[in-house]
Amino acid sequence: MTEVDTTIGLEVHIQLNTETKLFCSCSTNYRESPPNTHTCPTCLGLPGTLPKLNKKVVKYGVMAGYALNCEIANEMHFHRKNYFYPDLAKGFQITQYDKPIAKNGEIKLKNDKKIRIRRIQIEEDPGRLVHPISSRYTYTDYNRSGMPLLEIVTEPDLSTPQEARELLNKIREILEYLQIFDGSLEGSLRCDANISIEGGGRAEVKNISSYKGAEKALQYELTRQKNLLRRNKEVKRETRHFNEEQEITRSSRSKEEEHNYRYFPEPDIPNIHITKKLKQQAKQDLPELPDEKRERFIKQYKITTDQAKSLTQTIKWANYYEETAKHTKPETAATWIADVLKGELNYRDKTIHQNKITPKQMAEIVNKLNNDKITEKGATKIIRTMLDNGGTPQEIIKQKNLETIEKDQVQQAIKQAIEENPEAVKDYHNGKQEAINYLVGQVMKITKGKAKPDETNKLITKTLEENA
Ligand SMILES: Nc1ncnc2c1ncn2[C@@H]1O[C@H](COP(=O)(O)OP(=O)(O)OP(=O)(O)O)[C@@H](O)[C@H]1O
Ligand SMILES: [Mg+2]
Ligand SMILES: [Mg+2]
For 69-83, what is each residue's pLDDT tens digit? Predict the structure, then answer.
């Protein structure tokens, strides 16, 4: 299929990790709780209740705005977006419309391409509908109702599904650095993906709840729209629904219904001034961001770009690496953390949270390796054993006999092997090269496998030649 011009824009919903909800004091830590236990009259939307804005959400929104290079509003306001659906108890969602908290930002992709951010707005999450397979009924769970969300809307600057996925990962990376978001929580990032090709109508795909899902949904849409175009059929402007299991999109409600939101100003929340003081404080609390950290790691620790990328992927790994590098040679630490440790954890389907090796212990392993106290194989063995069974490097070295031996111990073993095997020595002098291998084998036996075969080979040859 020939390449066609593809236009993609995302609306990304991020759950903020505040302790309480957006307009009430219900706890946000609802995921492990029974349905409808994190609710109150406010987040259930009962008549007569009034929303009270969580100040922390405003601060987090300002921080996100700065981190995504936006202009921060001096004054913002909330609107009611009206629609009828059982997940929305009060019949409207409190969101922002013409005065969002931030606008006109940008995010840079790997290849330096800039994706403009149109706006960032604060809004409340609706509840959740649950359809148990064992039941004829649909249930509503309002634990999620009133969770604080940031909606980040991009301009249609993306051109491939891969770019969309990269952008989502970037957003996750940045917001996790700010510690205002936890991307590992189920459903904490959801997005609507808008896509159109060559002047066709745009499809807005809803219900995407993962990075991979976004790429898959867009890929499906791209193929579908290209096929229509090829057959000279019209691509309609419509809302579609992504089915995560089947990895396809289906037409859902029509545009007319959807755009009948009848937005009007939220009368129960006053206009909010975002003061200079709050802005300053948010700026002050802004940590070093992933791109800056990556550049600094490359310069300061003299590590490769790939290693720096891997080590700055999450703030936890970056801190882990820096803590380790304090106690050992940063270059070797980078290799052993980025390549070996992360690989071993991945292989075990584990994350840094399940990493049983402290930075100090990691440094100890790297130091021993650099000082030739253990071999690379030994170091890998220590890491694997610690991940699987715990323990300290020293204990495992002892248990598994991983300490390399000193050179004079190897010399001693060579001397012994030569004395005990005059036949092999004779064979060697008579031109039988294989005799060396036999002697290496003997040295390995005497040293219980600790001598390095290559080195031993060289040392034996040298000794035999000197005594010829
Ligand atoms: N032609 C297009 N092709 C693909 N994406 C587009 C196109 N035009 C706009 N978009 C993207 O659509 C997204 C939403 O657009 P817009 O702000 O118009 O809101 P909406 O979808 O109409 O309304 P709502 O907020 O209710 O979903 C933005 O991310 C924008 O980049
Ligand atoms: Mg929207
Ligand atoms: Mg939209």
Answer: 999 999 999 999 999
CA–CA dist 70, 214 (Å, integer): 24
Is the pLDDT at 255 greater than 60, yes or no?
no
* Ligand 1 atom, smallest distance to 156 CA: 31
ipTM of the complex: 0.95
Mean pLDDT for all residues in the chain: 93
Window from 32-46, 157-171, 181-195, 446-460 with minimum mean pLDDT = 446-460
For residue 258, give the ligand 1 atom closest to its CA.
26
Give the ligand 1 atom nearest the CA of 151: 25
Q: Which ligand is nearest the CA of 117, by number?
A: 1
**Ion ligand 2, residues whose Cβ is below 5 A away:** 11
How confident is the model over 453-467, as a mean pLDDT? Answer: 87
3-state secondary structure 255-303: HHHHCCCCCEECCCCCCEECCHHHHHHHHHCCCCCHHHHHHHHHHHHCC
Q: Residues lining ligand 1, CB < 6 A?
A: 7-11, 153-156, 194-196, 202, 204
Domain chopping of the chain, boundaries: 6-279, 288-400, 407-467
Angstrom distance (rounded) from CA 160 to CA 157: 10
- Ligand 2 centroid, distance to 10 Cα (angstroms): 9
Question: Residues 349-360: what's their mean pLDDT?
Answer: 92
Q: 407-467 maps to which CATH number?
A: 1.10.10.410
- State the pLDDT at residue 196: 97
